[in-house]
Amino acid sequence: MAMVRLIEIEDASAEVRAVYDDIMRTRGTDWVNNFWKALANDPKALRRVWSAVKEVMAPGALDPLTKELIYVAVSVTNNCDYCIHSHTAAARKAGMSEAMFAELMAVVALANETNRFANGYRIEVDEAFRPRY
Amino acid sequence: MAMVRLIEIEDASAEVRAVYDDIMRTRGTDWVNNFWKALANDPKALRRVWSAVKEVMAPGALDPLTKELIYVAVSVTNNCDYCIHSHTAAARKAGMSEAMFAELMAVVALANETNRFANGYRIEVDEAFRPRY
Amino acid sequence: MAMVRLIEIEDASAEVRAVYDDIMRTRGTDWVNNFWKALANDPKALRRVWSAVKEVMAPGALDPLTKELIYVAVSVTNNCDYCIHSHTAAARKAGMSEAMFAELMAVVALANETNRFANGYRIEVDEAFRPRY
Amino acid sequence: MAMVRLIEIEDASAEVRAVYDDIMRTRGTDWVNNFWKALANDPKALRRVWSAVKEVMAPGALDPLTKELIYVAVSVTNNCDYCIHSHTAAARKAGMSEAMFAELMAVVALANETNRFANGYRIEVDEAFRPRY
Amino acid sequence: MAMVRLIEIEDASAEVRAVYDDIMRTRGTDWVNNFWKALANDPKALRRVWSAVKEVMAPGALDPLTKELIYVAVSVTNNCDYCIHSHTAAARKAGMSEAMFAELMAVVALANETNRFANGYRIEVDEAFRPRY
Amino acid sequence: MAMVRLIEIEDASAEVRAVYDDIMRTRGTDWVNNFWKALANDPKALRRVWSAVKEVMAPGALDPLTKELIYVAVSVTNNCDYCIHSHTAAARKAGMSEAMFAELMAVVALANETNRFANGYRIEVDEAFRPRY
Fold first, then answer.
1. Residues C51 and C79 reside in one and the same domain
2. Which member of A1, B17, E3, E50 lies 3.0 to 4.6 Å from B12 by CB, making a disulfide possible if both were Cys?
3. How far is CA A35 from the centre of its chain?
4. DSSP letters of E89-113?
5. Do B77 and C110 lie within an 8 Å CB cutoff?
6. Nearest residue of D to residue A131, measured between CA atoms
7. pLDDT computed for residue B61 by the predictor
8. Residue F74: domain span
9. Does A98 contact chain F (CB < 8 Å)?
10. Same domain, D69 and D24
11. Percent of all residues in chain D with a pLDDT value above 70, rounded to a whole number
12. Interface test with chain D among A1, A6, A127, by most D beta carbons within 10 Å
């Protein structure tokens, strides 16, 4: 049970409803997921975060599937139950196969392992890896 | 200064040298980065971790660039200085443009933000996001 | 189901009971929450942690509500289910309104986002932000 | 040295300059800190993140000092060097005394401690702490 | 419900079955825990991770109980529900008493607390603590 | 440079000096490390945290070396530079060999890896791992 009441579509104010409509239109769906229904308790946060998600996750130099894979990688590292579920579903919708999911998990797990070797041994960054500009 | 002495190529035992040679052959380089020189103090760890990196990061269902982007995403989330530098360099070598790097950062940052909204509000996973098999 | 049996008030040893009594007296309640019932398996830890909580959370330069908001901010960042619930309840008891809760969540989420931009880009601290003493 | 070149005020495009000007106007300063100079490599991110910071950190149900204390609490938990420095400076500017800073550190540290007792013992949330709405 | 189907022993391919058999032989048990049944969807990951666990957790300079205590310490810090349960069970099997478990929790919690004091105050490492080699 | 001035022994108030003396007496040293010199700005925190460290790290069901290994495991997972240095030094003083240090790093890194497989796949805890009491 969430810490705040979820605002259903039929209970939404005009301001919230406008964001819900944009979410559904952008995604081509007829429902809104719980994340937005929780944020809707703070209409400014709802608008701001949705607008950020819409801008950041739009196709650009990186395609939508790659962006969803990155999103899952972060969510797994942070152990966010909701986000792992929602972004794995989004990644699958964007074309992630089971083989890709397995490789994603393997890279995320490996990176978490080698991060600790590097941190634990306090390894100095090689000159060759320093940014050059 | 690292917690352990870095084992230079010329000081490496035959066992360590064999791994160093495989690293250089696989990457087509004539040097070995500090990460492996630190791990070389534990030759079994050196062999095991290198062999895992080689297997996991090889092209598969996901291409090498995508894997490096995921690696950077985890390293940024964990704030691993060494890994951010080494895997950003690897991602650039694999074709990451500055525009892709900027989008990677934006997705990682956004995911870290929405992870906390979901965790903080303890939002229930929507039925539609549950895995089906 | 917790990893250890919860020690109920009626089953508490005199040593544990004394701490339970102090918790109830300090809070003006007639019950003890599960956190302490779990720690009670290690009476020294129970006494030490309770005494630290009592000292740190007492009104001082910061008022109790501000302290609870900070506690929730940490618990959300770490994704501690128990602590989010218990300290959100405590914050509400100390006067946190729904609007304050929403702003708390927004600041916590934003800080988690900008933390990753700063970490990922390895941004140097401005001279003006260095401590001066 | 940051992963990207910092965009100085005199090198900023009109789009970036407009955000820099808004930052300086809002804060009543004549300089821009490195965080924004790094983000300026991605003008859309610069505009989006600044606009989020401006909206979230404005006085509301919580006052600016309380918001900065929460920001520091998150940054310390995540160990973000840049953010600890910049938001501790901002908190001091907003009125944080040394005594408040010490209490902030004590609460953050304590919360990180009790978070692990709760997580490690997998303590069940008390019914009394469940949200009611 | 896991994100992937768990591969039961009777449904395992020869390749997966060989790893399952090695797990059961090594542990002297007649069952395989869910962790491996999930990884079995990626037989290479199953083989690689099991072989790493077998090598790293074998008695060496540190005894198996000490290694399990360290494993639990990491899992509690990361709040990994599955790993806390499986490695607490393994630690108990390796001889961890209730008193040892309580002290383990106390050290983990304390370390998480003092880590934040050190990070928050950005305390410089004493010369005496620098590695010497 | 730390966020607060370090309080040297010769500048310490009687209250702070008493704790410093207890630290030196307990450890059989004639110096105090920076951690305590930073905390000394808040004498109550200095006394409380030192007294917790003294109690928790004393020999009990777990020996001092094992406790230091656990401390390092947490500090590496959290990437606390100061704590990795100070507790690796303490572990070495308590008898940690280079081989033990290497195995410690290997277990910590592996646990961080498998934690993410378990979290990412959302693997259900096996009945056999549930606590029984």
1. no
2. B17
3. 11
4. HHHHHTT--HHHHHHHHHHHHHHHH
5. no
6. D3
7. 98
8. 61-120
9. no
10. no
11. 100
12. A1
Tokens of C8: 């109920």
Q: Which residues of chain F have pLDDT under 50?
A: none
Give the pLDDT score at A133: 87
- Residue D29, token pair as written in the block: 């300063």
List CB contacts (< 8 A) between C49 and chain E.
Answer: 109
Instruction: Report residue D125 as tokens.
Output: 């949330």
Per-residue confidence of chain A (133 residues) as pLDDT tens digits? Answer: 899 999 999 999 999 999 999 999 999 999 999 999 999 999 999 999 999 999 999 999 999 999 999 999 999 999 999 999 999 999 999 999 999 999 999 999 999 999 999 999 999 999 999 998 8
Does the CB of C132 have a partner CB in chain F at under 8 Å? no
Residues E10, E54: one domain?
Answer: yes
Q: Using CA atoms, how far apart are residues C34 and A21, in angstroms rounded to an integer?
A: 43
Say if B133 is an interface residue toward chain A (CB within 8 Å): no
Domain boundary among D58, D79, D95: D58
Crossing angle of the two packed helices A98-120 and F98-120, in degrees rounded to 10: 150
E119 near A CB under 8 A: no
Residues of D in contact with B88 (CB under 8 A): 3
Taking the C-alpha atoms of residue E59 and residue E66, their distance in angstroms, rounded to an integer, is 10
- Give pLDDT tens digits for C26-56: 999 999 999 999 999 999 999 999 999 999 9
Same domain, F76 and F42: no
Residues D50 and D70 in one domain: no
> Mind listing the pLDDT tens digit for each residue in B75-89?
999 999 999 999 999
F90 domain-assigned:
yes
Could you say which residues from 9 to 48 on chain B have a Cβ atom under 8 Å away from some Cβ of chain A?
31, 33-35, 38-39, 45
* pLDDT grade for C133, boundaries at 50, 70 and 90: confident
C51 and C74 in a single domain? The answer is: no
* Count, residues in chain B: 133
The ipTM of this complex is: 0.98
Three-class SS of residue B46?
A: helix
Answer whether residue D13 is part of any domain.
Answer: yes
Residue C132 domain-assigned (yes or no): no
Return the number of CB contacts < 8 Å for C and F.
25
Subunits in contact with chain F (3 or more CB pairs closer than 8 Å): A, B, C, D, E
Under 8 Å between Cβ of B128 and A82: no
Domain boundary among D9, D37, D58: D58
Number of domains in chain E: 2
Q: Do E108 and D114 touch (CB under 8 A)?
A: no
Taking CB atoms and an 8 Å cut-off, how many pairs form between chains D and E?
Answer: 54
Q: Does any domain span residue C133?
A: no
Option in F2, F117, F129 nearest E123 (CB):
F2
Neighbours of C79 (CB within 10 A): 22
Among residues B66, B64, B48, which one has the least CA distance to residue B104?
Answer: B66
